[in-house]
Amino acid sequence: MAKKVAVSFNLNGNDVDVLVEPRELLIHTLREKLATTGPHIGCETSHCGACTVDLDGMSVKSCTVLTVQCQGARLLTIEGFEQGGALHALQQAFSQEHGLQCGYCTPGMITRAYRLLQEIPNPSEEEIRYWMSGNLCRCTGYQNIVKAVQAAAKVLAAQAAEKPGAKAPAPEKVSA
Ligand code: FES
Ligand code: FES
Questions:
Q1: Cα separation of 63 and 142, whole Å?
Q2: How remote is the CA of residue 1 from the centroid of ligand 2, in Å?
């Protein structure tokens, strides 16, 4: 068995330390060692996006990231979206617009949509479909996912207008 390596990173606002084999994938560390089961395992080949997390301001598919690559990183998963007991605008929008059915893809979808809205706060439908194209959904047909992202964009824009200078929540601020 390979020698284990100590890795430290920030997960949803909390500093965590884990001991992993150099070959261990981030999705397995999250789910099996850190009780972070929001990111799901679908294909494990970088196709479905169910395992999407935000890593230092980038969407990554955690089934193709080694945990040892996360030393010192800042990670956001769906568990970090709740704000003081309230759902994030994206979570509310996915619920209200019926952007999910079985929900298996939803943590990855929302995490990817979060990154999109950080980069493009008012995306066109074409931009939403392009940005979300690496996240597959077997249930919804995608239309309501697009509507949910559009609805969340409006809510976040209104929130930003109320608090000029405020950005959409960053990982360290959205953890409970
Ligand atoms: S499980 Fe990672 S992309 Fe499908
Ligand atoms: S809601 Fe079932 S896979 Fe997307």
A1: 23
A2: 37
CA distance 156 to 122: 10
- Look up residue 35 and give its two tokens: 């009780």
Contact (CB, 8 A) for 36 and 11: yes
Say whether both 104 and 144 belong to one domain.
Answer: yes
Instruction: Tell me which residue has its CA closest to atom 2 in ligand 2.
Output: 102
What's the whole-model pTM score?
0.92
CA of 66 to the centre of ligand 1 (A): 13
Report whether 77 contacts 8 (CB < 8 A).
no
**Ligand 1 pocket mutation, candidates 25, 26, 31, 46, criterion most atoms within 8 A of CB:** 46
Quick: pLDDT tens for 91-129.
Answer: 999 999 999 999 999 999 999 999 999 999 999 999 999
pLDDT band for position 158 (cuts 50, 70, 90): very high
Euclidean distance between CA atoms 11 and 20, whole angstroms = 16
Look at the chain and report how many structural domains it folds into: 2
CATH number at residue 46: 3.10.20.30
74 lies in the same domain as 94? no
61 CB near ligand 1 (under 6 Å): yes
